[in-house]
Write a structure and sequence with these properties.
Radius of gyration: 28 Å
Number of domains: 2
Organism: Micromonospora pallida
Number of strands: 0
Strand content: under 5%
Protein name: Multiple sugar transport system permease protein
InterPro entries: MetI-like, MetI-like_sf
Keywords: Cell membrane, Membrane, Sugar transport, Transmembrane, Transmembrane helix, Transport
Number of helices: 15
Helix content: 55-70%
Distance between the termini: 72 Å
Subcellular location: Cell membrane
């Protein structure tokens, strides 16, 4: 039998002059994407650069060239005035105390409430969780006057307790912890109960160590929120000895040290107030967004 052969397959036609190769198109798209990212990155970073530069300028240079990123000459007098001419160390100490207590309280209570809503079965659980969601939808400024009235009625106004107690529980933290606990396999807790562990022992020794990513997230959010909390301090205290950093910086901006722009002093104080939050976020950023199952796998 004769073998019939057809013509050999023709080689692929070369790209015409009007067609761009896929590699060049991908390269152009990648370059455009990075160019856009760099542009918006510079837009967001430039104010911080101006803040750092202005804090190192002299008063006349900061007033004459407020948007220049290069101080001419470099002057550290603004930082010296911050520590010698203001109550910045007192504000810093108050902020550290309030932030540490609020952060510890929020992490503890949010983890307890989140575990109860995620695992314990009791009447009204769904309604209670709906109330937590509803609280998250309420703007904080709406609660300022009720906070003042409650603090004044309870005799807590103008004290450290007024700065700390109302901030110990946060609806967002409860929501985060509840969602994370629901992702942990129930079999882990069942094994602990078989070994004789009670509800709290199971929570504290078995489930909570698995929730490290969520705990770090709540810690960062609580630290940042309480460190930068300004509206609450307005209705909680009026004694200058109880001012935190945001309240003290607002006092500086309002011109408490006299006339003049005083950009180096104001921006230098704001820069120093930003450093602790930046350090906390950089140190723990790899835990900030983490798959929920990662904590269970590590446990």
């Amino acid at each position: 039998m004769a073998l019939v052969t057809g013509p050999a397959d023709a080689p692929p036609a070369p790209a015409g002059p009007g067609r761009r190769p896929d590699g060049a198109r991908r390269l152009a798209t990648t370059f455009l994407g990075y160019a856009i990212l760099v542009f918006f990155g510079l837009v967001f970073l430039y104010p911080f650069v101006i803040q750092i530069a202005s804090s190192l300028k002299t008063e006349p240079d900061a007033a004459a060239n407020p948007l220049s990123p290069v101080p001419d000459p470099v002057d550290l007098n603004g930082f010296q005035r911050i520590f010698e001419g203001t109550d910045f160390p007192l504000w810093m100490g108050n902020s550290v105390l309030v932030t540490v207590l609020v952060t510890i309280g929020r992490v503890f209570f949010a983890s307890l409430a989140g575990y109860a809503l995620a695992r314990l079965r009791f009447r009204g659980r769904a309604g209670l969780f709906a109330a937590v969601i509803a609280i998250m939808a309420v703007p904080g400024v709406v609660l300022l006057i009720p906070k003042f009235l409650v603090l004044n009625q309870l005799g807590m106004y103008d004290s450290y307790a007024a700065l700390v107690v109302p901030l110990l529980v946060d609806a967002a933290g409860v929501f985060i912890m509840k969602q994370f606990f629901e992702s942990i396999p129930v079999s882990v807790e069942e094994a602990a109960r078989i070994d004789g562990a009670g509800a709290f022992r199971t929570f504290w020794s078995v489930v909570l160590p698995m929730a490290k990513p969520a705990l770090i997230t709540v810690t960062i959010l609580s630290f940042q929120g309480s460190w930068n909390e300004f509206p609450h301090s307005l209705v909680a205290v009026q004694d200058p000895a109880l001012f935190t950093l945001p309240r003290g910086l607002a006092d500086l901006v309002s011109g408490s040290l006299g006339s003049g722009t005083q950009y180096p002093l104001k921006l230098g104080a704001a820069l120093l107030a930003t450093i602790p939050v930046a350090i906390i976020f950089v140190v723990f950023q790899r835990y900030f967004v983490r798959d929920a199952n990662d904590g269970a796998d590590k446990g």
